Inverse folding.
């Protein structure tokens, strides 16, 4: 289910450009998994996150990171993959990427929609819709999104976690 290595991250180069300054050569680890277009994929994303963070000796960050991963994957499934959308069988509709630098962890969810996610506003925390991004904003240090370019269409929504004080 998971894939490690920099080759999976090539489509995410614009993500690196959109993040706060992080030296790309300092990437310590990365992992990626394809997720099926089913809500059960959220549980699979949490298990993948737990296993990956354990391998990276970051298990103490699991609760907050898993909450954010769950919200990003749920949003991708709910909003980027409506039931009437045609699905290409050869490409996974949603993909979770985890990237670890010395002092940062980024979780990014790629989906086929070009629509921007709704930013959390002051009224969104009480609304059923929009609560996910409010939680992402609350539990991560920063988050954002960008459209994909090149052969892939869609977007990546990412959340950044500080692992220690940045220099």
């Amino acid at each position: 289910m998971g894939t490690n290595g920099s080759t999976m991250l090539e489509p995410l180069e614009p993500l690196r450009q959109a993040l706060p300054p992080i030296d790309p050569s300092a990437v310590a680890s990365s992992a990626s998994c394809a997720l099926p277009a089913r809500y059960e994929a959220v549980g699979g994303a949490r298990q993948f996150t737990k296993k990956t963070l354990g391998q990276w000796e970051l298990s103490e960050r699991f609760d907050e990171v898993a909450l954010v991963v769950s919200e990003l994957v749920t949003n991708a499934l709910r909003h980027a993959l409506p039931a009437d959308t045609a699905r290409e069988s050869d490409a996974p509709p949603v993909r979770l990427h985890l990237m670890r630098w010395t002092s940062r962890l980024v979780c990014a969810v790629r989906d086929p929609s070009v629509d921007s996610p709704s930013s959390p506003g002051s009224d969104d925390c009480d609304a059923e819709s929009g609560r996910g991004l409010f939680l992402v904003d609350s539990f991560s240090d920063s988050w954002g999104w960008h459209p994909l370019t090149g052969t892939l269409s869609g977007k990546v929504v990412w959340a950044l976690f500080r692992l220690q004080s940045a220099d």
Notes: The longest strand covers residues 104-111. The mean pLDDT is 78. Helices lie at 13-18, 41-55, 62-80, 131-139. The beta strands are 2-4, 29-35, 94-100, 104-111, 142-147, 155-162.
